[in-house]
Amino acid sequence: MGTGRRNFLKLTSTALAGLAINPLQAVITKNNLYVNKVLGLAFSKPQDWYFINVKDFGELKEKTILSEDWEEFKDFVWENTGDPICLMAKYDQNNPLNFGKYSPSIAVWVEKKSDYDEIGIQTVEEYAISWTTNRIQYIQDPNVTKSKEVKDISGIKTVQYDCDFMVEHRDLPNSYRALCRMIYIEHGDYFYCFDLTDSIEAGEKSDLEFKMFLEEINLFR
């Protein structure tokens, strides 16, 4: 399912060696591995999952049906929320066999801490509240709770909010309740958020994949 943390660190070291040879190549995605030299971030996507390219992500956003108050203001919403640096999905969205199938996903968001200086956000706890509050206003029927579980990512304690909400998409035959685990950390000059989303109602649970993904994240500077 995953590579195992020891083997993953070996793979990361190999990828970083490649970056040292070609320093202009700031981001590597190879097989299951993602390495971002600028951010000092590396992780392994779940086995047999797919990296989603920018073009496909744009189409996914366009076909997502937002909450009633915001559906007609989609351009503003997507500009306000921005894009993740990386998006992974269980199913290949370009495979016709997967049309109409709900797919669990992992999205990785990164923002500079300095971007929040003017509004007085300095800690990851403050950032988590702000970012969660901002995003949930756009989705359908959200129910948010702060998780009592404290995870550890690459030796850094996390802040987690869980949001169950209604997913409605033009390519899906039905709407489903889904659960998004929003896991926040602070590292160096950046705030990170890892969104892990699946749906019991759609018959797509990915607890094991999510657990192994988090265990294999490496922050290397």
Automatic annotation (TrEMBL):
Residues 1-26 form the signal peptide. Keywords: Signal. InterPro entries: TAT_signal. This is Twin-arginine translocation signal domain-containing protein. It comes from Flagellimonas pelagia. The lineage of its organism: Bacteria, Pseudomonadati, Bacteroidota, Flavobacteriia, Flavobacteriales.
